[in-house]
């Protein structure tokens, strides 16, 4: 374990403020899943909270939490995407992981070492095996397609100058399709960190279609963090803008779009 964490104070404060939201969502989802382990909406919410916690903790150099969140996310991904049953054993592990995360974050906030040994717990996480639920073949294919779209569209970094296309079917669904212009009013790593929380808010508001240019590209090039987010949501423009009311985040414009227009350049 690290003795202390070397991180700029402004990054630490951003992480600490926002991580409380992920921890709370994680806990609320667990409590709901105790009553209904097949609630896919709550599974998605918990997955999103752990995923965001993994990304933000890694970005501020919080490797202990990043590693644990990574393995918990992988276990939950089997439930969400592969039709594995969320068992009582899994629920116990996610409750314990939540409590350990809280203690880790407290140590991080005090710039103190996290002295607990969690090797036995991590072994339990990595050994989790669930029983597949019966699903129709088309449902399994749809889940796998969504997983591949996430991994190739938003998680990986495209080659320089290469813009990933969005299939029309990805932009279809309930609600209106919006293009949201975002400008982060800080630079570099702090801008990237704040953008992770913008992405989380967008995912909470509806279905995130894409971010252009990709955040990883902006960070790698040292560019200003000005980008467009494409989302399908049942929220109004006013509700969507309110949900993005974050410090040092400016919404430069919101417009309704058609699927075929997503590939066209835009400026607000």
Describe this structure in words.
The chain has 268 residues and is α+β, with helices and mostly antiparallel strands. It folds into 2 domains: 9-126, HPT domain (Four Helix Bundle (Hemerythrin (Met), subunit A)), CATH 1.20.120; 161-261, Alpha-Beta Plaits (2-Layer Sandwich). The protein is built from 9 helices and 4 strands, in the order ααααααβαβαβαβ. A 4-stranded antiparallel β-sheet has the order 2-3-1-4, with helices on one face. It is globular, with a radius of gyration of 19 Å.
Termini separation: 47 Å
The coarse silhouette is: globular
Spatial order of the strands forming the largest sheet: 2-3-1-4
Class computed from helices, strands and strand pairing: alpha+beta
Q: What name goes with the CATH superfamily of the largest domain? A: HPT domain
CATH class of the largest domain: Mainly Alpha
| Rg, nearest Å | 19 Å
Helix content: 55-70%
Q: What are the main properties of this structure?
A:
single chain; 268 residues; alpha+beta; Four Helix Bundle (Hemerythrin (Met), subunit A); Alpha-Beta Plaits; 2 domains; four-stranded antiparallel β-sheet; 9 helices; disordered N terminus
């Amino acid at each position: 374990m690290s003795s202390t964490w070397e991180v700029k104070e402004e990054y630490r404060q951003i992480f600490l403020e926002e991580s409380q939201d992920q921890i709370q969502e994680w806990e609320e989802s667990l409590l709901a899943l105790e009553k209904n382990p097949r609630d896919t909406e709550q599974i998605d919410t918990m997955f999103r909270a752990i995923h965001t916690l993994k990304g933000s903790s890694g970005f501020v150099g919080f490797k202990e939490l990043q590693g644990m969140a990574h393995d918990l996310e992988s276990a939950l991904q089997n439930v969400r995407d592969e039709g594995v049953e969320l068992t009582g054993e899994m629920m116990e592990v996610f409750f314990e992981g939540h409590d350990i995360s809280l203690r880790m974050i407290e140590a991080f906030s005090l710039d103190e070492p996290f002295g607990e040994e969690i090797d036995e717990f991590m072994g339990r996480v990595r050994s989790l095996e669930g029983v597949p639920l019966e699903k129709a073949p088309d449902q399994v294919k749809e889940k796998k397609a969504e997983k591949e779209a996430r991994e190739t569209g938003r998680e990986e970094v495209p080659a320089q100058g290469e813009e990933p296309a969005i299939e029309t079917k990805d932009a279809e669904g309930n609600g209106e399709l919006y293009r949201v212009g975002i400008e982060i009013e800080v630079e570099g790593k702090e801008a990237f960190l704040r953008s992770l929380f913008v992405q989380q808010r967008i995912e909470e508001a509806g279905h995130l279609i894409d971010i252009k240019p990709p955040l990883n590209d902006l960070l790698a090039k040292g560019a200003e963090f000005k980008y467009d987010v494409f989302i399908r949501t049942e929220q109004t423009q006013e509700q969507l803008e309110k949900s993005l009311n974050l410090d040092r985040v400016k919404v430069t414009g919101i417009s309704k779009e058609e699927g075929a227009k997503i590939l066209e350049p835009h400026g607000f």
